[in-house]
């Protein structure tokens, strides 16, 4: 393969730029040409494509967001969009593509490969909810942004003897909540992977003030459970009489300069995706497992270690679901007071 | 005066600890003894008072919040509470008190002084809305926290071509919004001191996308105008068709390690309050104006340069209202594109 | 004036980019055209000049350094270089120039103006040592970078019971040292504007460990006095037996994202320089004094409030030297323990 | 085991406090009592020991350094010191001890265990050079501090077209240098695990300026190779004519608020050490390998997976040396330009 392209898709994540840089530089190092596609699959279909030079990515590694931009583009689920996209790529002589994004973005990569156009997925999302990798690009930065913010909220929480419910991103996975909760010594962490009893939450909170000498409290809540305002309302209804406040860290978790780990991880995964394309391989997603680079078929059978299978009814099934961080959640409970 | 005390009152602000440290160290330097009062006026009335040693404040300067804690205590508006407070202070032989907080807290200081117990106010609040000082302790840190967060949101805003309405604290004063907006190159800044026309806001925003080549936008909104969710709803109703998002920086603005400027300002103001008490002066608030230390009577006539006067109907009137940052707001408009 | 240019000169400082942005945007706002000159006076003489569009400065405000670059160019002290520079500017129809840099850079601006080509100086240096302004662009960021670093060194200093001598930039002015020392509660601050006795320094240090219950110490040293290694050697020779370490914060103080205050100050001063050029004024330097914009003749008599005069022997004399931060240095001594 | 103690030893590292917190809280969770030992083995021998309450560690997790302090204490290599230490511990009824520090500190733990007093080592050092663990506590924070500093130096390097040689800690291991170099896109990384030819270093550097369009360069140097000043001198002697500067990040790498990852890792390892002691196990060091908790005998044979063996001449031999980060170093070379 002599000419490849790269795009970013789905929600932006810190480190996506480092991954783009790695794809561009590694491809040039391997003697390939490399193109950038703006605005994800939308830009692919519309032909918003340009040739990368090695200097184009010189200062992007430390920048948050994605300078290739991202966009939702449901039309790419349809055959017509896919074929149009391939047509645009072929116009530039492009033979393979690296897709950096969440696992929704992997489906597009899979379709391209099915049509004979090799594509490789790179896991980029702050949520850490992609199967086939221990960590996603952006997760480490998001957790560090969260703990900085929670450390700040703790100052106020302490000063005013308040209970703060702090909502963090994570629709399906509580990883940000669990890590941030453990790393800030939060009193309670509420995640979608574990059931909770609002009465038990309130009982523990009130007991802290009444019997365990606590003077303030932080409860970290993953957005996949409910929003912070609702949770505070639920706590009040269940009898919590502490000075309750809701706050949502929201979009600040998505941005910011990537941490060292996200830059290194992105460099590693981006370069590995190029290695696979160079060998003509597609339909794969790269990841890191037990500190080693891995790659898996995006679609196939569980026996093939594929990330997803097609069920008989045509629906896509996750073969090995993202594992809940139950060990860390339990550790968090053992170390709080 | 040989023995003074210090308390923090109102919303916590970064740098309050540096101000407490300055009061403690300066008082000891001047040969006085100094006491701490926990939880503001509530702790004063309840006698939650302890003697400070010089080492007690050794590591607090770099910490956010207030380790003396703060509390609302409306009972202190009544004579009974004030007399009870003075009684508690006299039990410890305390002869004067430094009150660090917003201008609501100044009223208590004024009452104490009226009852023959000298008290001096030190301006501590992130809002920068206290009369008699160009800057309040905590403002500089809050603005820096705001620009870090807005820089992060800009990453996402750029990546997804969105318009973000970012709400920052400031009930009566738009200072945080104006400074943060200017320092991040925000497209529009909406503050309580300036009227706005939602149609003009939307017209400018849409014109940016349609005619001025803008691909995303940040609008900084002071909470005193309305909240971000409402503002987004208003924009939609007025015809904005961009991809609008609301986010509230909320309580993260209150916490965090104080900046150098807030630490220096707090040190300066705290030490000056001790100077005044040492001379037996009370009923004053300290401030910084044109880079010089100043102090003004809290209550009196405009001719006396007092911050507040009593109107005929008994209401408290601000003699020289906090000036709006209209020059900076105008500069912000001239430098945006 | 319809067409102006901007350059950065001398050591780079955080906020220079914000000043360039302000010059570009303000000029366009005022209906002028604006050009950028790369690499300071060297680029001027070599004709390394390009036209600015409003979008060229869109994302530079939050970046450290100067994207126009800077360079030493002693040749500009000679008439030949100056005339060549003017010739280059005139080729592009440029009628005035804004020079952002230290006061060394002001001399060039003065010469240009003497040759009939109006130039205005904007104070940009981390050292805060420029006459005619209370603060220079970059100082606030440098102090904040310094206190972050010193807070980190304090962690180690505490952990190991050590005395750290921390060297910060400042060849002629101790402002960074004084502010950083006060803001971190440093035990001693050594600056060029105050004499020191190494025996007294050691005596105080040893007394801290022996009699005042200190377990570690930080001494902040301005580079203008001597370097940290030397100072440690001097302390040892004078009998200090504590566990002494030298560290030099060095070049990290020059870089980094500018603080809110530096961005606002740079915006304000850059825009003001454009205002002056628009009125056809040159040979001036802008500044901020007592929170107000000011401008002064660069060269002239003391009566004209000029920053510099020509002495009879042809040497340049500073009319009103940068004032030492003796008040803050004294406050620092009163608040330490 | 009903009563254990914890100490920190060797160079301080961010996250040591989080590890102490984890030991204290986990021990209390398991129904044990837990004591703190100040100043490492020195404090043990001198009996500087106190009982921990659960609240004592409430706010330490986010703090850099070690609040238990650390100290060099070569006397502990002798039998007398070891027996005296055990005697002090037994006075308080302590039955086991957790030692947080570098692998030098492990030797003490091993000796205690040999004398029948179970001790477990927890890897705490920024250098990441401890056998038996993929990561040490403090490494992630140090790398992030390094990249922040190098990003700042890059601003200046770019502005002035300079080559900066940036020295980072790492006497035996180049891990900080490799990670920081890869994460900042440094042009060259010089580490003790790889030979270098100063002529090749200079050739590449000059080629960058002359043929590859580079305008500045960063070379990251591990202290184990030589210091930055020397390296610059070597480069000059080998013919480098670029504008060379040396800077040493030095002690700022040791301090600072720990990152999320260091807090989580420290919590995990500290708690695991308590688990081992609870089962009566000693003479072990805990670590993380392939994302799983592991523990190994500190001293023993290679077959037993022990970290160290005794050679016939009585010297201590490392069984499985810390592996060099050659893969990442190679990746760094492939992605630079």
UniProtKB/TrEMBL annotation, chains A, B, C, D:
<dbReference type="InterPro" id="IPR035966">
    <property type="entry name" value="PKF_sf"/>
</dbReference>
<keyword id="KW-0808">Transferase</keyword>
<feature type="binding site" description="in other chain">
    <location>
        <position position="223"/>
    </location>
    <ligand>
        <name>substrate</name>
    </ligand>
</feature>
<feature type="binding site" description="in other chain">
    <location>
        <begin position="169"/>
        <end position="171"/>
    </location>
    <ligand>
        <name>substrate</name>
    </ligand>
</feature>
<feature type="binding site" description="in other chain">
    <location>
        <begin position="214"/>
        <end position="216"/>
    </location>
    <ligand>
        <name>ADP</name>
    </ligand>
</feature>
<feature type="binding site">
    <location>
        <position position="162"/>
    </location>
    <ligand>
        <name>substrate</name>
    </ligand>
</feature>
<dbReference type="InterPro" id="IPR015912">
    <property type="entry name" value="Phosphofructokinase_CS"/>
</dbReference>
<keyword id="KW-0963">Cytoplasm</keyword>
<feature type="binding site">
    <location>
        <position position="245"/>
    </location>
    <ligand>
        <name>substrate</name>
    </ligand>
</feature>
<feature type="binding site" description="in other chain">
    <location>
        <begin position="251"/>
        <end position="254"/>
    </location>
    <ligand>
        <name>substrate</name>
    </ligand>
</feature>
<feature type="binding site">
    <location>
        <begin position="102"/>
        <end position="105"/>
    </location>
    <ligand>
        <name>ATP</name>
    </ligand>
</feature>
<dbReference type="GO" id="GO:0042802">
    <property type="term" value="F:identical protein binding"/>
</dbReference>
<dbReference type="InterPro" id="IPR000023">
    <property type="entry name" value="Phosphofructokinase_dom"/>
</dbReference>
<keyword id="KW-0418">Kinase</keyword>
<dbReference type="GO" id="GO:0005945">
    <property type="term" value="C:6-phosphofructokinase complex"/>
</dbReference>
<keyword id="KW-0460">Magnesium</keyword>
<dbReference type="GO" id="GO:0016208">
    <property type="term" value="F:AMP binding"/>
</dbReference>
<dbReference type="GO" id="GO:0046872">
    <property type="term" value="F:metal ion binding"/>
</dbReference>
<dbReference type="Pfam" id="PF00365">
    <property type="entry name" value="PFK"/>
</dbReference>
<comment type="similarity">
    <text>Belongs to the phosphofructokinase type A (PFKA) family. ATP-dependent PFK group I subfamily. Prokaryotic clade 'B1' sub-subfamily.</text>
</comment>
<dbReference type="GO" id="GO:0006002">
    <property type="term" value="P:fructose 6-phosphate metabolic process"/>
</dbReference>
<dbReference type="GO" id="GO:0061621">
    <property type="term" value="P:canonical glycolysis"/>
</dbReference>
<feature type="binding site">
    <location>
        <position position="103"/>
    </location>
    <ligand>
        <name>Mg(2+)</name>
    </ligand>
</feature>
<feature type="binding site" description="in other chain">
    <location>
        <begin position="185"/>
        <end position="187"/>
    </location>
    <ligand>
        <name>ADP</name>
    </ligand>
</feature>
<dbReference type="InterPro" id="IPR022953">
    <property type="entry name" value="ATP_PFK"/>
</dbReference>
<feature type="binding site">
    <location>
        <position position="11"/>
    </location>
    <ligand>
        <name>ATP</name>
    </ligand>
</feature>
<comment type="function">
    <text>Catalyzes the phosphorylation of D-fructose 6-phosphate to fructose 1,6-bisphosphate by ATP, the first committing step of glycolysis.</text>
</comment>
<keyword id="KW-0021">Allosteric enzyme</keyword>
<dbReference type="GO" id="GO:0048029">
    <property type="term" value="F:monosaccharide binding"/>
</dbReference>
<dbReference type="InterPro" id="IPR012828">
    <property type="entry name" value="PFKA_ATP_prok"/>
</dbReference>
<feature type="binding site" description="in other chain">
    <location>
        <begin position="125"/>
        <end position="127"/>
    </location>
    <ligand>
        <name>substrate</name>
    </ligand>
</feature>
<protein>
    <recommendedName>
        <fullName>ATP-dependent 6-phosphofructokinase</fullName>
        <ecNumber>2.7.1.11</ecNumber>
    </recommendedName>
</protein>
<dbReference type="GO" id="GO:0030388">
    <property type="term" value="P:fructose 1,6-bisphosphate metabolic process"/>
</dbReference>
<keyword id="KW-0067">ATP-binding</keyword>
<keyword id="KW-0324">Glycolysis</keyword>
<feature type="binding site">
    <location>
        <begin position="72"/>
        <end position="73"/>
    </location>
    <ligand>
        <name>ATP</name>
    </ligand>
</feature>
<dbReference type="InterPro" id="IPR012003">
    <property type="entry name" value="ATP_PFK_prok-type"/>
</dbReference>
<feature type="active site" description="Proton acceptor">
    <location>
        <position position="127"/>
    </location>
</feature>
<comment type="pathway">
    <text>Carbohydrate degradation; glycolysis; D-glyceraldehyde 3-phosphate and glycerone phosphate from D-glucose: step 3/4.</text>
</comment>
<dbReference type="GO" id="GO:0005524">
    <property type="term" value="F:ATP binding"/>
</dbReference>
<keyword id="KW-0479">Metal-binding</keyword>
<dbReference type="GO" id="GO:0003872">
    <property type="term" value="F:6-phosphofructokinase activity"/>
</dbReference>
């Amino acid at each position: 393969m002599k000419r490849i392209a790269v795009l970013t898709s789905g929600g932006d994540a810190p480190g996506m730029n480092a991954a783009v840089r790695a794809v561009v530089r590694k491809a040039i190092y391997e003697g390939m040409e490399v193109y950038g596609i703006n605005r994800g699959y939308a830009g692919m279909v519309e032909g918003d494509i340009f040739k990368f030079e090695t200097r184009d990515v010189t200062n992007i590694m430390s920048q948050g967001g994605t300078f290739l931009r991202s966009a939702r583009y449901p039309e790419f689920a349809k055959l017509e969009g896919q074929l149009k996209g391939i047509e645009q790529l072929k116009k530039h002589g492009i033979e393979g593509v690296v897709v950096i994004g969440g696992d929704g973005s992997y489906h597009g990569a899979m379709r391209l490969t099915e049509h004979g156009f090799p594509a490789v997925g790179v896991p980029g999302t702050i949520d850490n909810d992609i199967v086939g990798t221990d960590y996603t690009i952006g997760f480490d930065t998001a957790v560090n942004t969260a703990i900085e913010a929670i450390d700040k909220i703790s100052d106020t929480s302490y000063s005013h003897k308040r209970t703060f419910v702090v909502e963090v991103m994570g629709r399906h996975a509580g990883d940000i909540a669990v890590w941030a909760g453990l790393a800030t010594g939060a009193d309670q962490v509420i995640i979608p992977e574990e059931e909770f009893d609002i009465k038990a939450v309130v009982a523990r909170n009130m007991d802290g003030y009444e019997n365990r000498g606590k003077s303030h409290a932080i409860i970290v809540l993953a957005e996949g459970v409910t929003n912070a305002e609702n949770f505070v309302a639920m706590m009040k209804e269940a009898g919590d009489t502490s000075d309750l406040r809701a706050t949502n860290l929201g979009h600040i978790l998505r941005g910011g300069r990537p941490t060292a780990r996200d830059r290194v991880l992105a460099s590693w995964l981006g370069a590995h995706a190029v290695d696979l394309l160079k060998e003509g391989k597609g339909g794969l997603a790269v990841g890191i497992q037990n500190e080693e680079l891995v790659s898996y078929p995006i679609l196939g059978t569980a026996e093939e270690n594929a990330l997803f299978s097609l069920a008989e009814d045509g629906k896509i099934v996750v073969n090995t679901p993202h594992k809940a961080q139950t060990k860390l959640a339990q550790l968090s409970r053992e170390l709080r007071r």
